[in-house]
Amino acid sequence: MPAFPTAARSALADTQLRHNLAHATSTIRAKRAAVVGEVEEWEELRLAGAAVKEAALRDLDTHLLRLEESLTARGATVHWARDAAEANEIVVRIAQDHQAEEVVKVKSMVTQEIGLNEALAEHGIAAWETDLAELIVQLGDDLPSHILVPAIHRNRAEVREIFLRAMGTVGRPAPADLTDEPAVLAGAAREHLREKFLRARVAVSGANVAVAETGTLVVVESEGNGRMCLTLPEVLISVVGIEKVVPRWADLDPLLRLLPRSSTGERMNPYTSTWTGVTPGDGPQEVHVVLLDNGRTRALADDVGRQALRCIRCSACLNACPVYERTGGHAYGSVYPGPIGAILNPLMKGTGRPGLEGEQVDSLPYASSLCGACFEVCPVRIDIPEVLVHLRSQVVDHHRGDTVPKAEAVAMRAAAWSFSDSRRLAWVERASGVAGRVLGRFGRTTLPGGRRAAGRVPGPGAAAWTGARDLPAPPRESFRAWWRRTDGGRS
């Protein structure tokens, strides 16, 4: 993926994409605002949710060991994975041990993060997405662009075309008379997936929460496909990020009240599935849990950035973000898009790395206007703007020793040189008066409050900068000159 500015420029040129995003995000925002407004103690609930997650992170090692102990006592097998490669190897091995040629999947961000579908495909194992939006993305040979609604960039006419073209190549085909009515499209997906649910012997899931006290994993979803995956197959493999653990069963209370309102704009999720190890004669008889790091301990070590690990994947910050609404998720180059992705990816992968991927990751903290809307809607009070600024400082620090400094660094050094000596500053002030008269030739606009701004300034860097920002026009007379001319303001 290219750096965010390049990818965003391409996305902005897609008018259909912008229309789809604006319609979807505004609808979800309105639903969320309505149900959140019903809760008088919403801010207290946010504080409680943040406290639960923060307490878990501050003693994470203890809770993870307790989780492993509880899971093992209830018949589950626990695996530890340091990175994506180890996690994929574990899942592939288990599937191969059961001669599985296919697996069904619950919607899972973490399996997207590690590229599990691709890893399974390399070993001849088909991974079928069963969430409707994930199915649309998979059949369309596409990438998810939203945490909650991966196909948010598609409209229903596009979905109809995808179903007609691709369903028959991997299973039950869509009806020839398929229309673009949402209920009809959902019905076609249901018939297509039913045979996969009934046939699969192995299922893969993530988890919204893992309870250390009881060894319980929790998945919340809206369609029932998760319930099918979690109960029908003989073998269940759950890949869980280590940050999903909470100490006690009671800790679910604020999280399950915050999540549905913040994500789908519902008072509660239609399906909340919990499972604790193996229950003889009921559900999967072999349960594996893969506890995944993959950069999470790197994020945990960052005193400012560690709060990003509180994230409960509700996507409220995406729906509130003016940048995401115009560019969509693909521009972020990660399974985690939007404001949370702009901090989570650099925290887990690290800033200042060489190569194209490093440049792409380093661009993400700048994919924000710092308006603060993301923090206002975050159910667990992650101060995303604070972390963005923190990560920007890391990116700048990593590039201080570059052989060829960036234009921004040169400008900052020039400003420091000017402001460090009063005589230099006086010279700059005189020069700015001349610049003000020169810039007047390129057109002026009037800003609110009567302030003047120069128009678009020529030059490679200046034209790009002033093409998207108002450049205040320098005054024709400096303060020092005015002071001398007016004898200290007394004339």
UniProtKB/TrEMBL annotation:
GO terms for molecular function: 4 iron, 4 sulfur cluster binding; metal ion binding. Residues 308-382 form the 4Fe-4S ferredoxin-type domain. Residues 450-476 are annotated as: Disordered. One of its GO terms (biological process) is lactate metabolic process. Residues 66-292 form the LUD domain. Keywords: 4Fe-4S, Electron transport, Iron, Iron-sulfur, Metal-binding, Repeat, Transport. Residues 450-464 have a biased composition (Low complexity). InterPro entries: 4Fe4S_Fe-S-bd, 4Fe4S_Fe_S_CS, FTHF_cligase-like_sf, Helical_ferredxn, LUD_dom, LutB/LldF, NagB/RpiA_transferase-like. It holds the Pfam family Fer4_8. Coiled coil: none annotated. This is 4Fe-4S dicluster domain-containing protein. It comes from Nocardioides marmotae.
